[in-house]
Automatic annotation (TrEMBL):
Cofactor: pyridoxal 5'-phosphate
EC number: 2.6.1.52
Reactions it catalyzes: 4-(phosphooxy)-L-threonine + 2-oxoglutarate = (R)-3-hydroxy-2-oxo-4-phosphooxybutanoate + L-glutamate; O-phospho-L-serine + 2-oxoglutarate = 3-phosphooxypyruvate + L-glutamate
HAMAP family reported for this sequence: SerC_aminotrans_5
Similarity comment: Belongs to the class-V pyridoxal-phosphate-dependent aminotransferase family. SerC subfamily.
Species of the source: Anaerorhabdus furcosa
Protein's UniProt name: Phosphoserine aminotransferase
Length: 360
């Protein structure tokens, strides 16, 4: 089979070792005689899979005991409404709008409470992140919301806003598990699985226990209350069993890689290789403010749409898949999550050199 490198923003590349293990276990998991897909979620075997996944995640992300880990369906997008429905108290929340997903979250929150944009990088076409030090947050806000890594634009907060006693809520979908994280800085954080965690189908929500309340937006459906998930260990109903099994495998893979410290080093080296190649090129440019560049999503352009299209087409022929930028911004974007091997970046950089020699 031809070697393919998959630069998709999500669903994204998974560790090969994990896929091989899943293949080996597909028909007969741990001598149960069945596939994990066929198992009752209430069975002992599956209970172990879920508990191990939770514990491994707690270990790798250093999640303190006063935080609950929840597995919720509906993607990261459902959190845009679950967050305001569950955290509402005074009926106010402050939003940083740094891209499309932050904007969607803000628009959704307006359905439930008085949501305010306290900072935005819209005027800079979302190529930067507002300076968190100069942002005024309402003292009676129920929470402050950020999208920590902006998948489409390739920006990342390098510092978190100091929200004092107000819970910080972060969409970490595209940066979670790429580097060590101080969970205690957040009231709640969530990540759609399909980037660094596993296949699509589940969102991991990590929430400080005191924020799990009975009193929520009135009315909040049972399935949209964090309390329902917390009280039933994410098993009030049938969870996405196979997806969670795969996430558990990825967590074990992360442990084997040396944890988040080792991954941060590897991810930074990978990103540096690509950013340096762009900086040194006379053809490619990265539109993102160097102070806020993501190490997971790297956008770049030639400045000429036709040439971008040619690059994307030829890259695909060379086995570099899904390098096209998001439809709303154009150009190219290489998503280089944990499971993208260094070879993938080296191959991309060599291809960029070659393309520049021919076309530059
Ligand atoms: N937030 C971010 C940062 C994302 O990148 C995405 C999509 N990739 C979403 C939210 C939406 O995720 P989902 O498709 O799981 O709802």
């Amino acid at each position: 089979m031809k070697q393919i490198y998959n630069f998709s923003a999500g669903p994204a590349v998974l560790p090969k070792e994990v896929l091989i293990q899943a293949k080996d276990e597909l028909l007969n998991y741990a001598n149960s005689g069945m596939s994990v897909m066929e198992m009752s979620h209430r069975s002992k075997v599956y209970e172990t899979i879920l508990q191990e996944a939770k514990q491994d995640l707690r270990d790798i992300a250093n999640i303190p005991d006063n935080y609950e880990i929840l597995f919720i369906q509906g993607g990261a997008s459902l959190q845009f409404s679950m967050v305001p429905m569950n955290l509402i108290k005074n009926g106010k929340a402050d939003y940083f709008v740094t891209g499309q997903f932050a904007k969607k979250a803000y628009e959704e929150a307006k359905l439930f409470l008085d949501a305010k944009v306290v900072a935005s990088s819209k005027e800079q076409n979302f190529t930067t992140i507002p300076d968190v030090a100069n942002v005024e947050i309402r003292e009676d806000a129920d929470y402050v919301y950020i999208c920590e890594n902006n998948t489409i634009y390739g920006t990342k907060f390098k510092e978190l806003p100091n929200t004092k006693d107000i819970p910080l809520v972060a969409d970490v979908s595209s940066c979670f598990l790429s580097e060590p994280i101080d969970i205690t800085k957040y009231g709640l954080l969530f990540a759609g699985a399909q980037k660094n965690i596993g296949p699509s189908g589940v969102c991991v929500v990590i929430i400080r226990k005191d924020l799990i309340r009975e009193e929520t937006f009135n009315p909040t459906p049972t399935m949209l209350k964090y309390k329902t998930y917390a009280d039933h260990d994410s098993m009030y109903n049938t969870p996405p069993t196979y997806t969670i099994y795969m996430c558990g495998k990825v967590f074990k893979w992360i442990k084997e890689q040396g944890g988040l410290v080792a991954l941060q080093k590897r991810n930074s080296d990978k990103a540096k290789l690509l950013y340096d190649a762009i900086e040194q090129s006379n053809l490619f440019k990265c539109p993102v403010d160097p102070n806020y560049r993501s190490i997971m999503n790297v956008p770049f352009v030639t400045g000429n749409e036709e040439l971008d299209a040619k690059f994307i087409k030829e890259a695909k022929e060379a086995g570099l898949e899904n390098i096209k930028g998001h439809r709303s911004v154009g150009g190219m974007r290489a998503s280089i999550y944990n499971a993208m091997p260094l070879d993938g970046i080296q191959t991309l950089v060599a291809f960029m050199h070659d393309f520049e020699e021919r076309e530059g």
